[in-house]
Amino acid sequence: MSSQPVLRVGLVIADEMEFKPFAEWSQDQSERRENQLLGYERISFALENQGRKIQLDAVLCGIGKVNAATAAAFLASEGVDIMLNIGLSGAISNVRRGDFVAGTQYVEADFDLTPLGYQLGEKPGQEFCYQADPRLLEAVQKACPGLKSGILGCGDLFLNNADKKDLYYKTFDLTAFDMETGAIGSVCYRAGIPYLSIRKISDDAAEQSVDEYTEMNNLAESSLVDVLQSLLNQLMVGDSFWN
User: Fold this and answer.
1) Burial classification of residue 115, based on how many CB atoms lie within 10 Å of its CB (0-12 exposed, 13-18 middle, 19 or more buried)
2) What does the alpha-carbon distance between residue 6 and residue 20 come to, in Å, rounded to a whole number?
3) Is the pLDDT of residue 167 over 50?
4) What confidence tens digit (pLDDT) does each residue in 225-241 have?
5) Could you tell me which residues come within 8 angstroms of residue 3 by beta carbon, excluding any fewer than 6 positions away?
6) Which of 179, 189, 193 is nearest to 11 (CA)?
7) Which end of the chain has fewer surrounding CB within 10 Å, N or C?
8) How many folded domains does the chain comprise?
């Protein structure tokens, strides 16, 4: 008798208020475990349907590129088949507060060697714009019709400056800005792991961003987890990641 097929999914979440609704959803799931990964809080559980099983391993990593890359790298080393990320982002172009965006590409917008003659974001001899997995993009668009998509930029700063926002838009054609997506993208690119980030727009990344972000973040809404559930359900019934 063949064993049950299992898809291992890693999930990186930066902020504790973004993680809170995920932790609440996990309470009633089978095979639930809580432990730590390098001091980061980790929750794991299983989802099953039609003879298939998704083993979900989620890490609350803390804000910023170093935290996100560290957590993603260790999830990668443990053999996840897919890497996902959810969180809040600031609007750059063609989105407004409350919209959901699936990243098509991920770039470290704050990486700056321009004094040495390189373009903003460019890493000498390395890839620096990381692609979302097209199968994951297709799955989330099927699961959540009307979900927006676009290029996500990240950096180790809270973006609340209109001039810098305009620079990032003109340089990278960004849709939204956050503090983790490009770092996770770098890990997944090197590890060969399919990756997708889904972001909810919390603020305008300019003058009003602090108040707007703080208000939405403090709500700890379940809407991003709802999108995540829809995506996982779609992955369960689709055939793209099952042998």
Assistant:
1) exposed
2) 26
3) yes
4) 999 999 999 999 999 99
5) none
6) 193
7) N
8) 1
